[in-house]
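Q: Here's a chain of 253 amino acids. Please give me its 3D structure as tokens.
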Amino acid sequence: MASGVAAFAIGACLGFTTVASAQSARHERAAELAAEARAAFDAGDAAAAEALLEEALVQVDDPALYYNLARTREHLEKWADAASAYRAFVSLRPDDPRVPAIDERLRMLDERIAETEAAEAEAEAAAEAEAAAEERAGVEAENRAPEPPAPERRGPAGWTWALMGGGVAVLAAGVAFGLASGAREDEARDASTGAAGSDALSAARRNAVLADGAFALGGALALGGLIGALITRGAVSAGPTVGGARVDVRVTF
């Protein structure tokens, strides 16, 4: 490989300059790295080209390398880093005829940097506001009183059904006694002798008494079961605790 740092132009539109020739080994290495950087950029790997140019600048502090690095960083949209490389070039070659054009590019880069920083600051502020809102919501949720447990719905107690069933059965017995009493009264009216009629009438009266008692008892049982069903049908809500045990409050309707 020829000695000196080879020319490095990443695309004609970028206007890259050449690196000054030198005889030292460091310049030889810088030339190799510059050539590799150009090949990487031409292959579409601008990030690799940037890394190679940075390594070349470790070997020699050449203004052309800074210029090429600035254009590569612009391609990567690293506006602040590109501006830094341009300023390094201008500091080393203040009389270069490209300085006015570079100053104009620096002005454009500064505008882009300001826009990027403003967008980042806005995004950061929005993220902080969202985090603060989530934190407040969490604190409010922790301080909020817990929802009371849903009331336990239940139907009438089982004994009420048994009571009503017993009442209905006794009422049915009363109906049977009533029918029997009526039948014996008819028998007493149709009896041909006084003794037979008297016996039938006595039986009719006994059945009537039993029917009346059955109606009274059955009605009382059925009514008691119905009232019990209305009382016990409702909701059991979670009430206060006494000695660690929950006190159920029955709500009827």
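Q: Can you summarize the key feature?
A: Confidence is low (pLDDT under 50) at residues 1-7, 9-15, 235-240, 247-253.
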